[in-house]
Structures are given as structure tokens and as C-alpha cells.
Amino acid sequence: MQIGVFSVSDITTDPTNHTTPSEGERIKAWGQIARKVEEIGMDVFAIGEHHNPPFFSSSPTTTLAHVAAQTERIILSTATTLITTNDPVKIAEDFAMLQHLSDGRADLVLGRGNTAPVYPWFGKNIQDSVELTVENVHLLHRLWNEESVTWQGKHRTPLQSFTSTPRPLDDVAPFVWHGSIRTPQVAEIAAYYGDGFFANNIFWPKEHYQQLIGLYRERFEHYGHGRADQAFVGLGGQFYLAKNSQDAVREFRPYFDNAPVYGHGPSLEDFTDQTPLTVGSPQQVIEKTLSFQEYFGDYHRQLFLIDHAGLPLKTVLHQLDLFGEYVLPELRREYAKRKPADHPDSPTHESLLAARQAGIKPAMMKNAAGPADA
């Protein structure tokens, strides 16, 4: 199991002291957070892509390349790379470059995004979002897996004998996750290619995501990539920790109540009851996180939203210290105990290369090399 954090890159006023960090402060904070993620033994650092205030992460690969130079072990990923409005040629080149700079510690989550105005900003029509997703994913896979690509589609100019550069490291493309919170077609696309499916289940009740993940697993097996229970599933989560639950609730409540994504909506208590958000003691975070397997089956990646809602950097780093000391070791032990013998390791560059050399599907690898795995 890969365990890590993701950020949506919001710039939010701290409701407890009414201070607002600058864009520069938030951008540079990511380096400190990533170094802390590696220090405490987590596996993945992922950032989102947005092109509008109050968010600032418009160029994830630039940021991740900077983080790669400051770290040695963690996987560098995205919480969303917009497959609808980015040119797949540029995605192919940017992430192959990131692969080389990070020695293979790079993958990505493709998604349609959740900001409607982004489509016209990049010359696209939101009515074409599913068509753009299907067409661009298809081209992206070809660009990484074929040396010379001749291609014609509906939504971009044709390519004639085009070679994307640099080529993927070791001729192994970065592993692709597909992020979705509502679209069955995305689950189908992920299954078709044998890619991963990341269900960022931080807002809606679990029953909704059970349907999407169930569809992805069923179609993953249909397309011959492995059994349904071996499919590559990732989940989101959120936590705020204190040594006792009363302190956690008292400290986090003003941030929750004023958060741009869910403030002034359901109560903190209702939200923690209906979603993966856990505000409480280390044991409560452990128990809530381990319960995800009961609903969604064995899975491969667990990411937590950690630096949002105006939480100051000092608090975020302290939260990670608490997680590393009290929660992470227990999750590691329990995940290792629960892992079926034929459940494939979480995908890494090393495991994908080993599967390719062995001539088998990655989901059919047993105990493949994966330094970030439990």
C-alpha cells in the first residue's frame, strides 16, 4: 500500500488569526511538506492542477521537478492533470521529462477537472469533455508506447510520424491513474487500458464510490488485465489529529466551518460521519482508514488531503509528525497483515519495468519490486 498526501493548492485565510499566505509562500511551502512526507516514511506527494484563484498550482510538473531535487524516495504525482484542456503531446513530454529527472519516481492522475470555465480558457468546449477525455487518453498512451505516431482525431491537429521526446525512462511509461468522482466513462477508460482508478471519495457518501469502483473492477477483469480484486484502486481521505479527540475537534472546527470547499454546509459531525474525514485521535484515524477496505476491497494507494482550509504550514508539518509517529506504523502493519498473497504490489517504475521484462500484466505480478510498498 502506498500512503501519501495530496494538495488542492488553495490559498485560504486562516480563520483563527485572519492572515492569508501569499502565492509565493504557499508554493515554497510545498517543498517543506514534501520533505516532511519523505522524512516520516510516507510514499507519495501529489499536487493538483488549477488555473483560477484561490488556487495556485497551474504547472504541476514544474513544481514536482523542483521537489524531485529535494527528495530521494517518494513518488511524485498529481492529484489531477487535466486531460481535457492540456495537449496530450505536452503531457507526454512533461511527464517523461519528470520521470528522468526523478529517476522514475513519477506518475499522474488524469481527470476532467471540476472548474467549468477552464474549458474556454484553453479553447475547448465543456460539452466535449467526455470526447476530449477519450481521444486525449488514447493519444497519450500511443505517444508513450510508440516511437513514431501518425494520428488524426477530432479535437487537435493531426500528427505525422511524430516522436515524443524525451522517451519514457527505460521505455516504460509513467503509471496513469484516472481520477473521477462521478463519471462512469472514466472508470471504463481506466479499465480498458489497465490503468489505475483513483476515487477521490472525500465529499460524497461511500455508496456512490462503491458503484464507480465496482464498475472499474468488473471492466478491468473483462479486458483481461487481471482479476477484479487485483485492479489498481486509489482512495482519498482527510484527517486532523490531536492526542485526544476533543482537542482535534476544537482546533479544526474553525477551519472546517470556513473552508472554501465545504464550509457553511454540513456540520463537521455530519461530514465526518458521511465521508472519510477523520477529526480525532490517532486511533480514530487508524480505525476509520482501515474501514475503507471493508467498503471498497483491497486497494493500492491511500492519499490524504492535508494542507487546506487555511491551515498554517507549521500546523501541517505538525500533523504529519503526529501521523508519522502514531498512525503510519499501525497502518503499515495492518495493511501488510491483510494483503492477500496474490494481490499485486502498488505500481512503481520498478514493478512496471519488471512486469514488462517478464512479459506479464502488472496486476499479475506477485511480490514485484516496489520500495514504496508495504
UniProtKB/TrEMBL annotation:
Domain of life the protein comes from: Bacteria
Gene Ontology terms for molecular function: monooxygenase activity; oxidoreductase activity, acting on paired donors, with incorporation or reduction of molecular oxygen
Alphabetical keyword list: Monooxygenase, Oxidoreductase
Record Pfam families: Bac_luciferase
Positions of the Luciferase-like domain: 1-295
InterPro entries in alphabetical order: Bact_Lucif_Oxidored, LLM_FMN-dep_put, Luciferase-like_dom, Luciferase-like_sf
Gene3D superfamilies: Luciferase-like domain (3.20.20.30)
Cellular component terms per the entry's GO annotation: cytosol
Protein name (database record): FMN-dependent luciferase-like monooxygenase
